Amino acid sequence: MTTESSAMERRMEGQRFIGIDGGGTKTVCILGEPDGTILAMSRGESSSVKSRPWEEVQRVLLTLIQDVLEKTGTPASQLGGVFLGLAGSDRPEDRQRVQDWLRTELPDEVAITVHNDAVTALIAGTWGQRGIALISGTGSIAYGFDPATDTFVRVGGWGYLLGDEGSGFDLGRQALLAVMRAYDGRGEATALTSLVLDRWSLERPEQLINTIYGQDNIRTAIADGSKLVVRAAAEGDSVAVGLVEEAVECLEALVRTAATRMGLPLTGDPLASHGVMTLVLSGGLFNDAWFLKQFLATPTMRTGAFDVQLLERPPVIGAYLLALQEHGLELTEAMKTRMEASITRLL
Question: Which residues have a Cβ under 8 Å from the Cβ of 312 and sit 6 or more positions away?
Answer without folding.
Answer: none
